[in-house]
Amino acid sequence: MKDFLTAKEVGILEEAHHDARFRKQADRIKTILFLNRGISYEETATLLLLDATTVRRYYEVYKRERIDGLLETHYHGSVAKLTKTQEEELREYLRKNTYRKVSQIIKQVQDTYHIEYSVEGMTHLLHRLGFSFKKLKFVPGKLDMEKQEVFKKEYEELKAIKQSEDRIYFLDGCHPQHNSIASYGWIYTKDTKTVKTNTARKRVNLNGAITLEDMAITVLNEPTINAEAMIRLVQEIERKQPTGKIYLIMDNARYNHAKILKTYVKRRRRIHLMYLPAYSPNLNIIERLWKFFKEEKLYGKYYETYQEFTQVVMDFFRNIDQYKKQLKTRLTDNFQTLSL
Q: How much is the pTM?
């Protein structure tokens, strides 16, 4: 029975398993995937804590009705225990108060409305009310939303008045460490996949700039990032853009306010500095480039020597044009809005 699924069908089932809300649905999908790998009915039943008859039934259902039949749970709901008003109250309460466990929400409902729910019943209710189980996102503790909105307005005004030959650049540094970064991936349930690590603590100091007008990307490898390194980056931008005004958007690192940098810029009338609000990495578009770079070259990768690591890092940016199609959708000025 091995390999009775096409590659496309395997992909559909794996994606459905990733999105499955309930254990029974996930077990049905794993049954078909296990059988496709040549695992017997009996072994599959043992792995999934099912009986062999159930495993055979799932297989027959899939043969007849494919994935739609396999995932049909015949759950049609039950009479709502909470009134519509109570459900709205619960929704608003849970939007303000986050719980890690369904059992905690069950207790909250019981304490508030004196109504009992099972874990499965509460899970159905949460999905119906628009909730899903996902990670909290970190935001800087000193985030100033008002200043972020002011920056966005000023940025839009700058885009509106600049000339066609002018360019707006987003600048920042990145310091990838010579060590492996573990990442998520699709791994067979019974397997453990590993990636080598080393004890190295050396870093590559990247200083970069990007402009969205023509997706020009400049990245320099520096011994350290300081005011002198920023001047070298500005000089490289000037070399690449010989005409038009140059607007440089950067964070508030001390070296970006250094007298030597400001003196250099003051002597060049076509260069203008613009500073981001403090604690606002979401407004610096080059942060998305750094993230893409790490996904492509660092996650789950092992480089034995620092020299090899540095070579891979710099080759990525020397050949950045091959990623332009992927970057075009990620590097936009649709700024992420953070909320506290």
A: 0.62
